[in-house]
Structures are given as C-alpha cells and as structure tokens.
Amino acid sequence: MKNINLCPSMMCADFTNLKEEISNLEKAGVDLLHMDIMDGNFVPNFALGLEDYLSIHKLTKLPLDAHLMIEKPIRYVELFAKAGANLIYIHPEADDFPLRTLEKIKELGCKAGIAINPETSIESVSELLPYIDAILIMTVIPGFSGQKFIESMDKKIKSICSIREESGYNFEIGIDGNVSQQRIKRYSVVGVNNYILGTSAIFGKGLQYSKVISDLRKL
C-alpha cells in the first residue's frame, strides 16, 4: 500500500519495558509513534504527559506526533514542539481560537493538525481545512483504549476523503480508534493515510511487532 503510515499509540505500550517496546517497534518498521496527551478535563482520563514525551523522544529517532486532548491547547503547543513533536493535533472544540493555534504550531516548525470527535461535524471545521497538514478522525469516544468502532464514522471518513480530493487540499487523513486489519484495507482504498494502532491491531496480542507490521503492509 502506498502513502500509508502505521502509527502505534504509545498509551497502549508496556511502560514497564519501554526501551524494548520502542526498539521492537523500530525494528518492525513503524512510521511514527502516536502520543496521546490527556489532561483529565477535555477527556475524563489522564494519559501521557510531558515527562513521558521527553523520555520516549530520548529513546527513538522515529518521528512523534502529539495528540493534545487538552483544554486551551495553545498554552502547551510550544512545550511539545520543543519536546520533539513533528506533528501536533488539537481539538478545535477545546480552543477559543483554533486557527491562531494552528498558525502558532506552524511557526514553531511543526505540522499542524486537527482531531475531530465523533460528535464533531465536518461543517464545523470546514473553515480550518485550508490551514492544516493533517486531520485525525476519532472513530471512538476519545479518552480510553479498547472501545468499539463507531460505524457511523464510515460516512464521515469517506466524506473527508472526498472533500480533500474535490478541493485540492493536501492534508493527510488519519483514523484513530479500533483500527483493525480489515479497516486499514477498507479505508486505504478511499484515501486514508494514517492509522493509529492500539490494542485492536498491535498491542497486547502476544505477537511479534515485526510480523504484525509486515502483515499490515501486505494488505
């Protein structure tokens, strides 16, 4: 498959064996490490923080993103840019002036992206699409791993792919939430580029990461 990026979600990794986890993911040939930053306010959970981010950055040369599931993300984009983020996602609902924040991210030398919740309409973020480098479509309620894929997101995924093609935008499209082999195969055909891999695809299965990634590349 061309233009497909496989991005393990590090909130699902074994933090008691982090160095080996990252080494095995590198050897498997993943494209990017996905970093979920949760503040316990925007979503009802805590996940990776700045110190976790810095630790992982020291252990790898792989690119890292930062999915900021936090209120008023403009307060923190500079911290994560300096911590090594290549791509920073914000949730427009969490920011008073999301366009300003996206511009700030680019000024810091990072790619700027938005993440949209299942309840977020495409229409509500349409004005931001010319200014982004990536969009991440949440196919589960954000905040927890292991949830079921929300089937109604199928229409949203296909609509965003169509909008990108029809409007001539060049942002990447990703999905996050219960991303299985079957869904990667299905959505790569319609134009989805980035796949966040959690417990449905790679972690906690007792399989070698190199085999999992190799099998996904063959889809």
UniProtKB/TrEMBL annotation:
Binding site for a divalent metal cation: H34, D36, H67, D176
InterPro entries assigned to the protein according to its UniProt record, in alphabetical order: Aldolase_TIM, Ribul_P_3_epim, Ribul_P_3_epim-like, RibuloseP-bd_barrel
Keywords, alphabetical: Carbohydrate metabolism, Cobalt, Isomerase, Manganese, Metal-binding, Zinc
Molecular function terms, GO-annotated: D-ribulose-phosphate 3-epimerase activity; metal ion binding
Cofactor: binding comment: Binds 1 divalent metal cation per subunit.
Sequence positions that bind substrate: S9, H67, G143, F144, S145, G146
Catalytic activity: D-ribulose 5-phosphate = D-xylulose 5-phosphate
Record-level GO cellular component terms: cytoplasm
Active-site residues, record numbering mapped to chain: D36 (proton acceptor), D176 (proton donor)
Needed co-factor(s): Co(2+); a divalent metal cation; Fe(2+); Mn(2+)
GO biological process, alphabetically ordered: carbohydrate metabolic process; pentose-phosphate shunt
EC code(s) of this entry: 5.1.3.1
Record-stated family: Belongs to the ribulose-phosphate 3-epimerase family.
Name this polypeptide is given: Ribulose-phosphate 3-epimerase
Higher taxonomy: Bacteria, Bacillati, Bacillota, Bacilli, Lactobacillales
Gene name tied to this protein: rpe_3
